Amino acid sequence: MKPASFSYHAPTSVAEAVALLAQLAPEDGRVMAGGQTLIPMMAFRLARPRHVIDVNGIDELRHVAVEGSTLSIGATVRHAMLERPVAGSGVLGRLLADVVRHIAHPPIRARGTFCGSVANSDPASEWCLVAATLGADIVIRSSRGERVVPAGRFFTGIMANCLEPDELISSIRIPLLPDDTRFGFHEVSRRQGDFAMAAALVAYRMSGGRALEPRVGVGAIEASPRRIAVAEDTLASGARGPELFRATALACGGAVDPMDDEEMPAQYRRDLVRAVVETALERSLA
Amino acid sequence: MTDLVEVKFTVNGRDCRIEVEPRRTLADALREECGLTGTHLGCEHGVCGACTISLNGEAVRSCLMFAVQARGATIVTVEGLATGTRLHPLQKAFIEHHALQCGFCTPGFLMLSATALERNPDPSDEELLELLSSNLCRCTGYKNIVAAVKAAAEAMRKESGR
Fold first, then answer.
1. ipTM of model
2. Confidence of residue A191 (pLDDT cuts 50, 70, 90)
3. How far is B47 from chain A (nearest CA, A)?
4. Would you identify the CATH topology of the domain B5-80?
């Protein structure tokens, strides 16, 4: 239960961090932000990086603010910093404040980071679901420059994504939501703060009793969170109400390709997804 | 074995200078290098909360940080809660409400609650339950812990005239 030896590096700028990564990634160098997943992995020796590049001392990464039509969240912005809506972030800020209460417990939220969760790409991660559903942009830096990957193309499997070993997520930009956006989030977990067994996030605008620009995302069901197009089409197809919500949830359950294991068979996950989508939609009425 | 690194921080008002391997967790450094064994280690992977301390005013799990990351930090451990022989209101309330049996989880619950009450002196029942669900207790049960923290919060509000 004690981590293996490693060399510790504490860069103070992104330029220094990516230069270190370029040099040390081939020697199994890893970025550490909040460390709330990496350190337990190291304690179990499931991860044994020879070099740890700690980005917590980089001031420019501690930045969270509205920039143009997006909320920009820097690499070391803690979950807890989103518990109160960021100034000027409107509906999106309220949505993040609603979701963050489901992430682990207060002491973990004081250290763990938004960008770190996305980099970790756990299928059950609430922030990965938010990024995928709301179409966030992942801003990636390396010594080769900067590239921006839409969340819809970032996740590639269970704890897998398109990050190269020498790359660092410097920030994530989430589009702000129009003021008339309604949203609902719901997840099922065995205990308060535990990993989600199923999670759903819905967002849409209202016009004449119908849902416009619908977004229906599910997490913890497939290897990566994603929007479910057929559920969105269903949600946009009729008058908002319990029947439409049920039809949307059923469409979602039929469209997913759930993970399957002894603890949670695929059919159970399919049932769960229907339940969380329906409840998330009900919550959008609140 | 990698080289030792120098780390300086403040623990319970005292300046501390230690030399550790980078892989040394803050929890182990507090216990072994600083001799403060009040911080307990249960699971060593961030689940049980027994090692919770206050770091720059925030409750964190000291097994989920490396000591080297605490450079320059202001740390309070359970040893720093009492003022001389005068117990902290939370410590008194834990005794009065029988909020501990074996006591292993107690330092973590005390530091979790102390830090939270500094930020929010009057938490709702729901907020308190959510907070206390952070840590594991496997003998007394949570009922008395909740009662103790509520009583302490009330006593602290009276004391400070809020």
1. 0.95
2. confident
3. 9
4. Ubiquitin-like (UB roll) (3.10.20)
